[in-house]
Amino acid sequence: MNGIHDLGGMHGLGPIVVEKNEPVFHHAWERRVFGMFLPLAATGAFGVDELRHAIERMGAPAYLNTSYYEHWLFAYETLLVEKGVLTQSELTTRRQQIAQGPV
Amino acid sequence: MGENHTRPLSEIEIRVKALETLLIEKGLVDPAAVDALIDTYEHKVGPRNGAKVVARAWTDPAYKQRLLADGTKAILELGYSGIQGEDMVVVENTPEVHNVLVCTLCSCYPWPTLGLPPVWYKSAPYRSRVVIDPRGVLKEFGTEVADEVKVKVWDSTAELRYMVLPERPAGTEGWSEAQLAELVSRDAMIGVAKVAAPGK
Amino acid sequence: MAINLVQALGAALAGASSREAEGSAPRFKAGDEVVVLNINPSGHTRMPRYIRGKQGVIDRDHGIFVFPDTFASGTGKKPQHVYSVRFTARELWGPQGNPKDALLVDVWDDYMEPR
Questions:
Q1: Is residue C8 part of a domain?
Q2: In a domain, A11, yes or no
Q3: What is the ipTM for the molecules in this complex?
Q4: Which of A40, A70, B70, C15 has a CB 3.0–4.6 Å from the CB of B83, allowing a cystine?
Q5: Which residues in C have their CB inside 8 Å of a CB on A?
Q6: Distance in Å, alpha carbon of B123 to nearest chain C alpha carbon
Q7: Taking CB atoms and an 8 Å cutoff, what residues of chain A touch B38?
Q8: Quick check: is A3 in a domain?
């Protein structure tokens, strides 16, 4: 697809920002997202080509305005719901429970 | 690490926790496996692996030949293999050619030898520009490439993963492999930097 | 169903190559001149826009790999050769390309035709 992910040769995307002594992960949640990739792939839920395509389908504004591990998270959620491993309502309900805090 | 447990969770933290807890309950993800993978790629796998490969190639001409002929196999000789490094190609910088790597379509990167990629490598500015203006990008990284040197940009659009074998700097004659490995930076193995001569 | 810690580390170390033992015969060899197809599929593809319709030279044959365009949509592996294809910066970028420079892009057999 002719998506925003296909970036080669575009102008106007801003300066290259290099972080000195960059850590491998910037947030604890990034670790969890990274660490779930291989276990999920091992269940046969999706392969790397499907993961990439799910990221490509996220839409240009979201793609440019979210970080790398948010792309992965979006792809997991999308593919797991599409394949019937989870339902959107399970995700929504669980998020609400977590947001309300421990009981 | 700097995460304050008393503050409310952010939206993204809630999404991640919701997903992970559901997957654990369904028996699809074992949190201990997640922990182990995080620990491996945060603490054990990284560009020091690649630096040892480079230092070996600088000191052992037969190894260098094997590395350039079959990167995967030669890298495995030093014990490095695995996901996102299954099919490795090593490209050599010379006085005539400077190589630099990118993945314009996503963020492919040789995990077993370089670890997980830095944010700038995955970012839209680097991926868009390095293919159309490699010399300009290299200059921003402080890397001057002489006009007569040919720049080759490798875009890893398929499942091959690349690594640059940088030039061995002058003034390192007689150095041990371990000393040489200390000089080799991640950026030199991506090709946005050269390996500086000692003392520079 | 979930893989445990030992299995996870084993899988990370083993990797999962998308290389295949058998596939369609290679249509190109190193040194061949090729033209990349000008196609605009709406599904997944690993053919970047900047090489579409451009002329290049086969630099090396990497062997046989799964074809992502079909595999991502669940319509088969369609294993075929992948090549490093060398494009001059001038071919891709016109006068903005440096005449000394080249791009090497990994391209599947199906994405190209002989020139």
A1: no
A2: no
A3: 0.97
A4: C15
A5: 1-3, 7-8, 11-12, 16, 18, 40-45, 48-50, 66, 68, 71-73, 92-93
A6: 17
A7: 25, 31-32, 34-35
A8: no
- Alpha carbons A32 and C34: distance in angstroms, whole number: 44
Q: Is A43 on the interface with C (CB under 8 A)?
A: yes
State how far the Cα of B104 lies from the Cα of C48, in Å rounded to an integer: 8
Domain count, chain A: 1
Mean pLDDT (10-residue bins), chain B, 200 residues? 70 98 97 98 97 98 98 98 97 98 97 98 98 98 97 98 98 96 98 89
Q: Which of A4, A40, A46, A53 to mutate to probe the C interface, most C CBs <10 Å?
A: A53
Q: Which residue of B has its CA nearest to A101?
A: B8
Token pair listed for C50: 């900047």
Chain A CB contacts of C16 below 8 Å: 41
Residue B110 and residue B25 share a domain: no
Domain of residue C89: give its range: 19-114
Task: Please indicate, yes or no, whether residues B142 and B89 belong to a single structural domain of this protein.
Answer: yes
Average pLDDT, chain B: 96
**pLDDT at position B7:** 83
Query: Which CATH number do you get for residue B167?
Result: 3.90.330.10
Judged by CB atoms closer than 8 Å, whether chains meet at A40 and B131 is answered as: no
Residues contacting residue A84 through CB under 8 Å, at least 6 positions apart: none
- A9, A35, A94 ranked by CB distance to B22: nearest: A94
User: Residue B26, class by beta-carbon neighbours within 10 Å (0-12 exposed, 13-18 middle, 19+ buried)?
Assistant: middle
C50 with A43: Cβ contact below 8 A = no
Q: Model confidence over C8-55: pLDDT tens digits?
A: 999 999 999 999 999 999 999 999 999 999 999 999 999 999 999 999
* The two structure tokens encoding residue B57: 């190639």
My answer on whether B18 and B61 are in the same domain is no
Q: Residues near C58 by Cβ (< 8 Å), separated by ≥ 6?
A: C28, C29, C30, C31, C32, C34, C83, C84, C85, C86
In a domain, A22, yes or no: no
* Three-state DSSP state, B140: helix
Domain ranges, residue B18: 11-43
C114 Cβ neighbours under 8 A, 6+ residues apart? C27, C28, C32, C33, C34, C35
Instruction: Select from B37, B105, B147 the Cβ nearest to the Cβ of C12.
Output: B37
Number of residues assigned to chain A: 103
Q: Say how many domains are in chain C.
A: 1
